Structures are given as C-alpha cells and as structure tokens.
C-alpha cells in the first residue's frame, strides 16, 4: 500500500566525463540539462543540471546531473550532498576511469549507499565487450558500498533499457526512508541568479523541513533576513516546498550579489554558524602524500567549499589510516552545519580527494593535545542526544532550549523526547536543567553554608546575594531553584534574606563564652548609665581583633541594643526604658520630658531618641516626637 503522505527524492547522476550522464538524463526525462552556451560548445557539463523524472500523487523524483570533469569536482560534491540515490554512469566502451573512482570515493565518504550502476553506450560495443565491462565494474566496486548495487545496461540514443532503468529507479526510491519534513527548514544553496522583474532567485535541494510562500527566512552565514516571495519546483509555481525536493526560491529584499553558492537558507536561528568543527575523519586507502598537523585542506560540506586546517590531538602525521580519526578542522570562513552533516576534504595542490566523514560537533573548542581530548571527542561522537545535552549542562549548568538545538545539534523532536523523560527541570526564561545538576548545586550550597558556619560561628548565616557571588559557575535562576528545594526539604532555613543550615545556631567560641557573658552582665548592671563598648571589652580582656565579631554577634542575638558607635544598652534594659518612657509621656513629648522620665544626660538621651525614630517607635515633628503604633 502506498503512503498517503507525498515523498520527495533526488537522484544523482555521477561518473567520468563524457560517459553519457547528460544524454542519459535527457533519455529519462526528455530534458537537456546542459543549459549554458559553453556547455553546448564544449559538450561537457560545467554546472549542475536538474530535471523531473517522475511525478505521481504520492511521490516526486528529480534528477541532478553533476559535472564529471576533474576541474568541476567541487560542483559535483555540491550536487550530490542532497541526493537520496546515485546512478553511477560508466561507458561500456571505456570502462571505469579516474573520475569514476573519485566519484565512488566521494559518494562513499558522504554516506550515500543507495546506488544503481549503469553501463551506457551499448551500441558502441558487442556482446563480448559488454560482458567484459560488467566484470570490470564488479571487480572495481568490490569492497565499496556499491558492491551489491544492481547493474543496468542501456543505450541513451537507441533507447535500449531506458524504461527498465526508469522503473528500477522508481522501485528503488520507494524503499528509501523519506527526509524529515518535521524539523526546521534548511536548504544549502548551489545556484544563485537574477531575472528581470523577479529579483534574486536561489536553487538547492531542501535538506530538511518545509517552506511556505511568504515564510520568513535567514540567509546564513551572513545573517540577512528575507522572505520566500515565490517557490518553484521544476519551473512550476507551488505554495510549499518539502525536504528532499529540488526547489527554486525567489527571495524578497536581498541583492543577488550578497548571495553565493555555499550559503544556506534557514527558518530559525537553531542552525550553527561556525568556523571550527570537531569531526570523525576517514581517509581513502591510497593517498599519495601523508597528512600533517595543521595541514591546509579544502573542505566541502553541503554546497560550501572553504579552506581549513587539520588539527590532530593524538598524532602529528598520518601516513595511512584504516580507522576513523577524531580531530578538528579550523576553517578560514564560517559555514552552516549541524551534527551529522557529511564533509569531504581535498588537497589543494597536488589536487586529490583525501577523505571525509561526519561532523560530530559543530562548535569545536580549544583542546589540549593528548588522550584526554580524544576521550572527550569519542564521548561526543558516540553519545546519545541526552548524554550530549547533559555534557553541555555540565559546562553551562542551565541553558535555553534554543541554545541546546544550536550547540548540541539535535532536532526539536529529539529534544522533546529527551525533555519528556524523568529528571528534567524547567527554570524561568525558558531555561532547562537536569536534577543531577540541581543536586550538584544543592551540594555546593550546603558545602558553602557549612564552611561559612565554621569560619563565622557568630553569624546567623550568609546573605543570598553573597551566596550567589560565591557560586558564580551556577546561574542565578538555578541557585534560586535549588534554595527553594532545600527550604522545602528543611535542609536550610532563611530569615530576613540570610541563609543557614537548618540545624545551625550561632554560637560563641567556647574559650571566650565566659568572658562575653561577664561583659553582658556588666552592661546589665550599669543599667542606663553605661560605659563605652571599648571599655567593656577591655575590662573583659577580649582582644581587639575579636571585638567587632563579638559586637555583631551581641547585636544579632539581641543581647545589646546600640545607641551609637560608642554606646549600647543591654537589650533587656533598652526595652524596659522604652516601655517606661511610653507609660509616662503623652502622645507627643519633647527631650526635656524624656530626660525627666529616664534621668539621662544628653550624651545618652539624643542617641536613645534617634534609635526610637529609626526603629519606628516614634516620629520626629519639629522639636517634639510622636508615638506611633509599634509591637516589640
């Protein structure tokens, strides 16, 4: 039974120059993909050519004809990056040629495994040569991903085998999983041009997502905002473009000179713009010269081509390597990629394809040479989406979902699936974290509080703002969330913005406790005619270095009530004096009345009354004070 949802596929024609790719494309589609005058004159493909092969209600197949000449290999790479199936074209009268091998290498490195091998120009060879050609192709492809690919024999001029090949392509694509249309839209650009009255038009194969007419888009890496004014597929206007579909988009408000091959159109900011990528690199078995540390290479990914330097962390030179190498490429320009994107590296001179692989991390960092970095890269390569997100959180503690999409290169579907699992915590401002991170933060808070209590046993605890300064590696929202959890669990307590462990009580050092108690008793004994605090400290024999700490402890525990910088009453004496004054004065009173009630001299009276004002017992009105409601 056919699926109701329409599927879109792109089939690539690859092979050596003059082996009949363009002629075969025309035989299959009735369209000549050589559009340029130079292509007609030289009878070679220079630019990518496109044609519709098959259109039904539930499926559409397009063909991309890639250049076979060595000079245009970069355009070939740009063209095959978005294909779902390759038709490898080999002329029966010439057999496997250098570009045939290079195309096979490139296709293999790009992870393209769906293939049909086609021997063309059958009219130029007899039956015996046909069989020899088939044997040669089988031998050449042994060990490659196309070793077991079906082989067809056709003649594009006479039409022999053409319909059978077309039917095989259609049957083969029906077995290929369709590209995801559910994610954010991305289309690497391989052609850009302008038409009079139309403005800027770009072409490419949609790698993922969908695009609607009128949709807001961003051109990366430039970061230019634009709109999809019009969408075409094979010259026909359409309201929507889908993943896997060859599409032309007319862009609004952007000069075509600001767009080039290698740029990408995207629908969100979730795609990485980067100049440093961590990669898993596989080298071709036969490379003429060894690769060296910091060697310059041409990097091809999507439709972009950019120079880069190879950075190894476990070697300084590569002679021959069967296993993949975990390394980094530092690029001369920004590119637009995500985790899982394939790439090719080529030597600039002498020109040759060296290898390729896939991007394990679009945002590479500065790493040290050694096994520790290799282990880190291996965990990035092999990690599940959840493991990679947790690794990001180990560093960042809490992040927005958009940041995860960009830095970890997961899809919205993958992120949603991870977030639906147990243990994920949503903080304010759309930030998320994990309970494992929260538990680490809670442990840090407990450790900080205990250390603080040990160093400052006289103090009630630590101010919340000061705690946040001491936990700089944790975002404020995460700290607040962790504090609230600790409060609910009754592991910590909070009073007037000061945090402490639930079981902590401020205490005097045992060796000074007796002298401090004697000091307070002396203040109590002196009632309202107290001496300066310095005198009391001296009489008690308390060293100057400890006095400030003890003084704050006495105030905090309400053992004393300071009048000013010099004098303080015992807190009990102060409360009694307030009650006595209130009982023996009217609603309003002056200094003279207060002196008469309490019998205090001016040096005590003035700071005593100012403390009443400060604490809200009274309010000053010119020369008098008025009692206001106050509860002790």
TrEMBL record:
The keyword RNA-binding does not apply. It is found in: Cytoplasm. Residues 6-178 form the Tr-type G domain. CDD domains: SelB (cd04171), selB_III (cd15491). Keywords: Cytoplasm, Elongation factor, GTP-binding, Nucleotide-binding, Protein biosynthesis. It comes from the Bacteria. GO terms for molecular function: translation elongation factor activity. InterPro entries: Beta-barrel_SelB, EF-Tu_GTPase, Elong_fac_SelB-wing-hlx_typ-2, P-loop_NTPase, SelB_WHD4, Small_GTP-bd, T_Tr_GTP-bd_dom, Transl_B-barrel_sf. NCBIfam families: selB, small_GTP. This is Selenocysteine-specific translation elongation factor. It comes from Rossellomorea oryzaecorticis. The gene is selB.
């Amino acid at each position: 039974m056919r699926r109701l949802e329409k599927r879109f596929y792109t089939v690539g024609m690859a092979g050596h120059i003059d082996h009949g790719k363009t002629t075969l494309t025309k035989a299959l589609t009735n369209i000549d993909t050589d559009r340029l005058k130079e292509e007609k004159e030289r009878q070679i493909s220079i630019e990518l050519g496109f044609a519709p092969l098959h259109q039904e209600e539930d499926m559409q197949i397009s063909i991309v004809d890639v250049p076979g000449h060595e000079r245009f290999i970069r355009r070939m790479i740009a063209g095959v990056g978005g294909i779902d199936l390759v038709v490898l074209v080999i002329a029966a009268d010439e057999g496997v040629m250098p570009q045939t091998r290079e195309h096979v290498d490139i296709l293999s490195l790009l992870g393209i495994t769906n293939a049909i091998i086609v021997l063309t120009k059958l009219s130029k060879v007899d039956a015996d040569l046909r069989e020899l050609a088939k044997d040669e192709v089988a031998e050449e492809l042994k060990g490659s991903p196309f070793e077991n690919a079906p082989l067809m024999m056709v003649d594009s001029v006479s039409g022999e085998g053409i319909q059978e090949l077309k039917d095989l392509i259609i049957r083969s694509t029906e077995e290929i999983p369709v590209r995801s249309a559910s994610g954010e839209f991305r289309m690497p650009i391989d052609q850009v041009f302008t038409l009079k009255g139309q403005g800027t038009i770009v072409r490419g194969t949609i790698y993922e997502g969908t695009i609607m007419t009128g949709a807001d888009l961003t051109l990366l890496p430039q970061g230019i905002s634009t709109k999809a004014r019009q969408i075409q597929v094979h010259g026909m206007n359409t309201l929507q473009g889908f993943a896997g579909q060859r599409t032309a988009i007319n862009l609004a408000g952007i000069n075509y000179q600001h767009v080039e091959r290698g740029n990408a159109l995207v629908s969100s900011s979730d795609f990485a713009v980067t100049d440093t990528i961590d990669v898993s690199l596989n080298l071709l078995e036969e490379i003429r010269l060894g690769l060296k540390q910091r060697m310059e290479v041409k990097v091809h990914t999507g439709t972009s081509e950019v120079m880069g330097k190879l950075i190894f962390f476990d070697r300084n030179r590569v002679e021959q390597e069967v296993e993949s190498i975990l390394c980094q490429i530092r690029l001369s320009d920004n590119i637009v990629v995500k985790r899982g994107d394939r790439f090719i590296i080529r030597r600039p001179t002498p020109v040759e394809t060296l290898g390729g692989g896939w991007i394990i991390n679009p945002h590479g960092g500065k790493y040290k040479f050694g096994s520790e970095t290799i282990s880190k890269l291996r965990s990035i390569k092999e990690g599940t989406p959840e493991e990679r997100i947790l690794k990001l959180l180990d560093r960042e503690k809490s992040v927005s979902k958009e940041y995860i999409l960009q830095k970890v290169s997961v899809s919205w579907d993958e992120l949603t699936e991870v977030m639906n699992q147990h243990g994920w915590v949503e903080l304010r401002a759309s930030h998320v974290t994990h309970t494992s991170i929260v538990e680490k933060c809670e442990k840090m808070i407990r450790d900080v509080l205990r250390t603080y209590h040990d160093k400052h046993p006289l103090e009630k605890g630590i101010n919340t703002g000061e705690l946040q300064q001491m936990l700089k590696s944790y975002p404020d929202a995460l700290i607040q969330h962790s504090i609230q959890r600790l409060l609910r669990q009754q592991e910590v307590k909070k009073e007037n913005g000061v945090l402490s462990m639930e079981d902590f009580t401020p205490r005097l050092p045992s060796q000074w406790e007796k002298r401090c108690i004697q000091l307070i008793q002396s203040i109590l004994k002196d009632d309202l005619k107290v001496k300066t605090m310095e005198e009391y400290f001296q009489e008690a024999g308390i060293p100057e270095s400890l006095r400030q700490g003890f003084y704050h402890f006495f105030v905090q525990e309400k053992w004393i009530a300071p009048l000013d910088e010099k004098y303080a009453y015992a807190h009990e004496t102060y409360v009694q004096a307030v009650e006595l004054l209130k009982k023996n004065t009217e609603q309003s009173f002056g200094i003279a009345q207060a002196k008469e009630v309490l019998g205090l001299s001016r040096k005590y009276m003035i700071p005593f009354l100012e403390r009443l004002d400060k604490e809200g017992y009274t309010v000053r009105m010119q020369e008098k004070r008025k009692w206001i409601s106050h509860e002790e």
